[in-house]
Specification:
Blueprint: E1 2-7, E2 12-16, E3 22-24, H1 51-60, E4 64-67, E5 91-93, E6 98-100, H2 106-116, E7 121-125, H3 133-144, H4 150-157, E8 168-171, H5 186-203, E9 208-211, H6 224-233, E10 239-246, H7 253-257, H8 259-280, E11 288-296, H9 299-308, H10 327-342, E12 347-353, E13 362-364, E14 370-372, H11 376-385, E15 388-391, E16 399-402, E17 406-409, E18 411-417, E19 423-429, E20 436-442, E21 450-456, E22 476-477, E23 482-484, E24 487-492, E25 496-502
Helix pairs in contact: 3-4, 3-5, 5-6, 6-8, 8-10, 10-11
Bound molecules: alpha-L-arabinofuranose (AHR).
Residues 26, 69-71, 173-174, 215, 243, 293, 353-354 line the site of alpha-L-arabinofuranose.
Length: 503
């Protein structure tokens, strides 16, 4: 079967900026401890950062990293995580039922980001669960004020002479979720978020603030929550957050493969909600979206663990949420990246949750190696080639029937035109049984050849990369794509993620 679309630079969606390729480091399981940070590991540098993991993170191409949670942040005391390591307290982490040593904290995180690369930006989440305006202001002063005040001088005394210059701040995390420490009603949260935003802007009008949207689209108060929160914060914040995780519910692979249908509708719903508030306020301002948690996550496994764990056990850096992803999961991940790019006009920030070990593209073994999961590849390729003008793609595709979403296109695609004029087509074939021929009519684009077609696909959709076989699944080059008479023709293998570059 054949799917088609037309590309024309006169019809664009918006600009895909670097912030679409963010990630997330939470003090959860082994994301930090024995993930990015493992003093004593053979590959650790002088500060305990694993250089093997750093190299993979650079290859992955993450641009923004959210920290330190997540659910974790809602009981977090930032003061615990700074200063001499020997003086830092051990604390209970109620969110993940673990013990946090605080051996890795804010200063170590900023040093980690500097080592990832000069352009990787921090996105700090504030605790608006157990804390409030005063503590947010204190952290802002500690992190961003140059010197000459108690908290900025404390940072200097702790060894960080230069301010961290954090621009992006999350006003809490998933505050609508009853599981959240310090969970709030919409009106309680709206007020607290507005007051915190006002105070932080008094100190620095240049901060960029993210208001908490719903924890997920299935929350009973979804949209009503956002409307209530934005009604109070519209002029004070820049972004509103979305979180979404997907897995094959009840083994329904067909719907799982169409997860991006939900993601795109979620984005559309939230844009409509935010714009409705703007209309009511007669405001020309537009709130953008921070999709600051998205991924494939086999959530039932975590829920089962939480139900059955020993309540007396508070382990340090336990193995939690260590999903080992398949080819199928990688194809869905690619499709979620396509969904984000297709909405680059309103999605300003996106963070795949998370970076290492915890539902992550990178896995590590304590004392042992680090390796790429299947999902590493779509992210790395999209982060590398998905920058520039996103072209409007309207596919004419054969469909398949899904339980959740009815008829869904077999082809999911986007295209990005780089500053150098090259065009990258990112495409998923959702058909598990057969190949899909792709025909793209190119108008007004200065490209004349196929520079490469890379695919991630496998005869075994359940194949994964493991400690014993870390390179079992890697992308491969596909030959045969042509660009002739202004038409790109390529064959997409069954159940595949594809990157086709035109120059
Ligand atoms: O990413 C894992 C968890 O998922 C985060 O801590 C929380 O914000 C979300 O529910």
């Amino acid at each position: 079967s054949t799917a088609r679309f037309t590309l024309d630079p006169a019809f664009t969606v918006g600009t895909a900026g670097p912030r679409l390729f963010g990630s997330f480091v939470e003090h959860l399981g082994r994301c930090v401890h024995t993930g990015i940070f493992e003093p004593g590991h053979p590959a650790a540098d002088e500060s305990g950062l694993r250089t093997d993991v750093l190299e993979l993170i650079r290859e992955l191409g993450v641009t923004v990293v959210r920290y330190p949670g997540g659910n974790y942040v809602s009981a977090h005391r930032w003061e615990d995580s700074v200063g001499p390591v020997g003086d830092r307290p051990r604390r209970l982490d109620p969110a993940w039922h673990s013990t946090e040593t605080n051996r890795f904290g804010l200063s170590e995180f900023m040093a980690f980001l500097r080592k990832v690369g000069p352009h990787t930006e921090p996105m700090l989440a504030l605790n608006l669960g157990t804390r409030g305006v005063a503590e947010a202001m204190a952290l802002q002063e500690y992190a961003n004020h140059p010197s000459g005040t108690a908290l900025s001088d404390l940072r200097v005394a702790h060894g960080d002479k230069d301010p961290f210059g954090v621009r992006l701040w999350c006003l809490g995390n998933e505050m609508d979720g009853p599981w959240q420490t310090g969970h709030k009603t919409a009106s309680e949260y709206a007020r607290l978020a507005a007051e915190t935003a006002r105070a932080m802007r008094q100190v620095d009008p240049g901060v960029e603030l993210v208001a908490c949207g719903s924890a997920n689209r299935a929350m009973p108060t979804f949209a009503a929550w956002e409307a209530a929160v934005l009604a109070e914060t519209y002029d004070l914040v820049d972004h509103v957050s979305l979180h979404a995780y997907y897995w094959p519910e009840n083994g329904d692979i067909g719907s799982f493969l169409a997860s991006a249908v939900d993601m795109e509708s979620f984005i559309d719903d939230l844009v409509a909600t935010a714009d409705h508030v703007g209309a009511r306020l007669k405001s020309p301002k537009r709130i953008s979206l921070s999709f600051d948690e998205w991924n494939v996550w086999y959530l039932p496994a975590w829920e089962e663990h939480a139900r059955t764990r020993d309540p007396a056990d508070w382990p340090e850096a336990p193995r939690l949420l260590e999903d080992n992803y398949t080819v199928l999961d990688a194809v869905v991940t690619g499709s979620l990246l396509i969904a984000l790019l297709r909405h680059a006009d309103r999605v300003a920030v996106a963070c795949q949750a998370q970076l290492v070990n915890v539902i992550a593209p990178i896995l590590t073994e304590p004392g042992g190696p680090a390796w790429r999961q299947t999902t590493f590849f779509p992210f790395a390729q999209a982060a590398r080639h998905g920058r520039g003008q996103v072209l409007d793609v309207r596919v004419d595709s054969p469909v398949y029937r899904t339980e959740k979403y009815g008829d869904v296109d077999l082809l999911h695609a986007t295209a990005v035109r780089g500053d150098d004029g090259t065009v990258t087509v990112l495409a998923v074939n959702r058909d598990r049984t057969g190949p899909l021929t792709l025909e793209v009519a190119l108008r007004g684009l200065d490209v004349s050849a196929v520079a490469g077609h890379s695919a991630l696909a496998d005869a075994d959709p359940g194949a994964r990369n493991t400690l014993g076989a870390p390179d079992r699944v890697v992308p491969h080059d596909v030959h045969g794509a042509t660009l002739a008479g202004g038409v790109l023709t390529a064959v997409l293998e069954p159940l595949s993620w594809n990157v086709i570059r035109l120059v």
